[in-house]
Amino acid sequence: MVTKLSRRKIATVVAERLLEGDKTIIKDLAGYLFYTKQTRSINLLIRDIENALLDKGVLAAKVVSAHDLADSVKKQIDAFLLDESGANSVQVQYSIDKDLIGGIQISTPQAILDTSIKNKLQRLKAAKQ
């Protein structure tokens, strides 16, 4: 029988093993969540893992843009995130969403910065109503 652990404890262990370079932890985590019927808490657990990584000096961020970003822009974003977060290093996941039209969205465990044209248009529409 597997003992249920707190999300915080799980997040701490996963963060430590990820920092050690252990990629098998993701498979182990998926199996544990499935076996203990906790798959619905995955989004909360991901946030907890990101916070545990930040506690260890590693900022996990997601950057979504409408178009592929040049390497020089990615380096500027990385430097911005390092400077603003005070972390020792950043791990940024870049992706493309053409629905943004332009601009970028940056998500970290603490904040979201949305400079996308889609967001600006939505705010204009809401203000007009």
Could you please describe the fold and organization of this structure?
With 129 residues, the protein is of the alpha+beta class. It is built from five helices and four strands. The chain has helices at 7-19, 24-35, 42-55, 71-85, 117-128; strands spanning 58-65, 89-96, 104-107, 112-114. Helix 4 links the parallel strand 1 (58-65) and strand 2 (89-96). The chain starts with 6 loop residues before the first helix and ends with a helix.
Mean pLDDT: 94
Query: Shape from CA axes?
Result: globular
Report the biggest beta sheet as strand number plus sense, adding barrel if it closes: 4 strands, mixed
Q: What's the number of helices? A: 5
Spatial sequence of strands, sheet with the most strands: 2-1-3-4
User: Helix/strand-derived class?
Assistant: alpha+beta
Give a count of the beta strands, DSSP E runs of length 2 or more: 4
Rounded to the nearest angstrom, the distance between the terminal CA atoms is: 56 Å
The unreliable regions are none
Short descriptors:
4-stranded mixed beta sheet; 5 helices; single chain; 129 residues; 51% helix
Topology at a glance:
Blueprint (H helix, E strand, L loop, with lengths): L6 H13 L4 H12 L6 H14 L2 E8 L5 H15 L3 E8 L7 E4 L4 E3 L2 H12 L1
Parallel strand pairs: 1-2
Antiparallel strand pairs: 1-3, 3-4
Helix pairs in contact: 1-3
Could you provide a short overview of the structure?
The chain is of the alpha+beta class and 129 residues long. Helices cover 51% and strands 18% of the residues. Strand 1 (58-65), helix 4 and strand 2 (89-96) form a beta-alpha-beta unit.
